[in-house]
Amino acid sequence: MKGGQFLKMPCVRVLLVLVRVFFVHLPSFAFGDAFPVNGARGGNSQGYNTDGMHPIQAEMLPYVRDMIDHAFGSYIKYAFPKDELCPVSGTGKNTMGGYGWTLIDSLDTLAIAGFHKEFRRHAKWVEEHLTFDIDESVSVFETTIRALGGLLAAHFMYEEGIVPIIPSEHDYNGGFLRLAVDLADRLMPCFDTPTGISYGKVNLRSKSKEMWISRSNTAEVGTMLMEMTVLSRITGDEKYERAARRASEALFAARDSQTELMGNHIHTHTGIWRHGESSVGGNIDSVIEYFIKSHSMSGDIGDWERFERTARAVNRYVRKGGMLLAASMYSGRRLQTSQESLSSFFPGNLVLGGHLHEAVESSWPIHTFFKHFGVLPEIFSLESGEPSWMSHDYIGRPEHIESLYMLYRATRDPTYLLMGKELALAINLPALSCFFFERVHHEWFWT
């Protein structure tokens, strides 16, 4: 392995989505039925409750669980309470304020995978020791999806009975929700703009915005709606959902009137686009994801309409023969002949929106590139058939795995389980270091 490369947070998301693929198997999204017996081992000769599972799921369940055990255990042993683990050196690194970012982002994965005792032990630490009174300017986007989302997910693991409360281990009394409210209140100043389009960074202690940065990328602005909506619904305080929804709607209102495409950077005070390249890749991706998932969660018809119109525009101008490229938001003219790994989420969103044919059509080219390279590089060229320059690495992104999960849930075709198995095996072999999962370098694709 090459030295000096740090594991970035998507690795946690890879493990969470692999858990969904191989642990969650019933027609409903009832996580508990897929747990190992008693939240640990016990049930059959493999030690897991595999009743009703497809054989591929039963085979891969302990494999993925061991991946989680290795990754999370190494983080706790070598890096905690720092934010991230450097997998080659086996040391910790603070990247988001030094509040144990990986721990918060991993709690729901522990719960769903049946590591209930570990969940309770680390949840107790979070409730008793975590503070966001930190003099650090943080990414509102990353803090929302990982820390705020992680706290809310952990709260529901207890509240919904997914993880039983055992007072002798952790007598939970709502601390995750209190921390979530505190964190959201520290982030709320980001929405204080004439347009409602949010700033990208806020200081957690002073709550001051980095006003000198007057543009935000589209994904930053539109990827807070689910977390803020959940927080409003469970606290009764509408301010969180109201602010996030205003930002999301402002983005959609600024789309081009002819193509209905959005650009990838926008001015926070004027609502004028600063960069007119449109895609489903970096800087835009998750706003589309949040349109459909927010509708699925809340039933808001406006979210559905925003997704449908955006998906139609993407299918017309961005999606070419199953590939997900980039186009001018103003003319629809194709700008690139390469695809980003981040774009791999879109087939799963098409499934949620009922566009199954288009989802299948776009998922197969992605998996073909995965098979060709061994893993998915950040950007791969359709013309050369190789990773794009300076974008050779696979950094643990979960998007393709999540799309396969959605396709399997919609079709029950075990082909998608097999594809998920191939991905799990591919990630586990070259990326497994003695400490954690490392980013995979270009050389692994060809040697």
Walk me through this protein's architecture.
Residues 1-32 form the signal peptide. It holds the Pfam family Glyco_hydro_47. By secondary structure, the protein is mainly α. It has three domains: 1-173, Glycosyltransferase, CATH 1.50.10; 220-336, no CATH class; 340-447, no CATH class. 48% of the residues lie in helices and 9% in strands. The protein contains 16 helices and 14 strands. The protein has helices at 10-23, 55-78, 101-112, 116-129, 140-159, 175-187, 218-222, 225-235, 239-253, 285-298, 301-317, 346-352, 356-373, 399-411, 415-428, 443-446, and strands at 84-86, 91-93, 137-139, 201-203, 215-217, 265-267, 273-275, 277-279, 319-320, 323-324, 326-328, 334-336, 338-340, 379-381. The strands form six sheets. The chain has a three-stranded antiparallel sheet with strand order 5-6-7. Helix 1 (10-23) packs antiparallel against helix 2, helix 2 (55-78) packs parallel to helix 15 (415-428) and helix 3 (101-112) runs parallel beside helix 5. The longest helix has 24 residues, at 55-78.
Helix/strand layout:
Layout: H1 10-23, H2 55-78, E1 84-86, E2 91-93, H3 101-112, H4 116-129, E3 137-139, H5 140-159, H6 175-187, E4 201-203, E5 215-217, H7 218-222, H8 225-235, H9 239-253, E6 265-267, E7 273-275, E8 277-279, H10 285-298, H11 301-317, E9 319-320, E10 323-324, E11 326-328, E12 334-336, E13 338-340, H12 346-352, H13 356-373, E14 379-381, H14 399-411, H15 415-428, H16 443-446
Antiparallel strand pairs: 1-2, 3-4, 5-6, 6-7, 8-11, 9-10, 11-12, 13-14
